[in-house]
Design goal:
By secondary structure, this protein is an alpha+beta fold. It has three domains: 7-54, no CATH class; 113-154, no CATH class; 155-214, no CATH class. It has helices at residues 7-34, 38-47, 49-52, 59-68; strands spanning 88-89, 95-96, 116-118, 124-126, 145-147, 150-152, 172-177, 180-185, 204-206, 211-213. Strands 1-2 form a two-stranded antiparallel sheet. It has a two-stranded antiparallel sheet with strand order 3-4. It has a two-stranded antiparallel sheet with strand order 5-6. Strand 9 and strand 10 (211-213) form a beta hairpin.
Length: 214
């Protein structure tokens, strides 16, 4: 909503015109009927503006002042819930940048719209899919796990993908199966040597073949 800032000036101009018109009629009558001299007529002219002109501290000035303190970011919303372009009036009647949608800032308590999560930069991003950030509560889509803040295939277990840095869970070692890095059982006879060239009791790690043998 826009109120012209020169509203009070416009009203003052109209009041001044009314005053001049009134003086054309009043001044001669005052001089003729009451015997007022020119100096007294001038005195009337000096006093009249005080009750013809609008007080600059009146309603118009108050409206201008109110409009000057609303609508900007962090200020209260203007009447009708109006804010400056690019802002919206939130539930607390404060003008803020929009929040919650993809690419927008996170809302209060780092919340975002459904299917989105607040990243470390305070921006709402898609979550839950492989490669996405993890959703609230470290949740990911079915078949995926939250690993270091990202949704990924399960890793570290037998025949699962190797975790970051080639790490695997106990009893497995990171190897290659069909060109894919997976955690394979290790340490038993005929299996790969576990990290540190470890094999089960009575077995020895063939360091060239990296196989545990009797």
């Amino acid at each position: 909503m826009h109120v012209p800032k020169d509203l009070s000036s416009c009203v003052r101009g109209r009041a001044a015109a009314l005053f001049l018109s009134l003086m054309v009629t009043v001044a001669p009558l005052a001089s003729a009927q009451v015997g007022v001299d020119a100096g007294s007529a001038d005195a009337v002219a000096q006093e009249a503006p005080a009750w013809l002109m609008l007080d600059p501290t009146g309603d118009a000035a108050t409206a201008d002042a109110a409009l000057a303190t609303c609508g900007a970011a962090g200020q209260t919303c203007c009447p009708g819930g109006v804010c400056d372009p690019g802002l919206e009036c939130n539930a607390n009647n404060v003008c803020r940048t929009p929040c919650g949608a993809a690419g927008q800032r996170c809302c209060v308590n780092q919340t975002c719209n459904s299917g989105l999560a607040c990243n470390t930069s305070g921006v709402c991003r898609t979550c839950g899919r492989e490669g996405d950030i993890c959703c609230a509560g470290n949740a990911c889509n079915t078949g995926l796990v939250c690993n270091a803040g990202r949704c990924a295939q399960p890793c570290g277990g037998p025949f699962q993908a190797c975790c970051a840095g080639g790490l695997c869970g106990p009893g497995t070692a990171c190897g290659f199966v069909s060109g894919r890095a997976v955690c394979i059982p290790c340490g038993n006879a005929g299996e790969a040597c576990c990290p540190g060239n470890f094999c089960q009791t009575f077995l020895t790690c063939d360091r060239i073949a990296q196989i545990c043998r009797f």
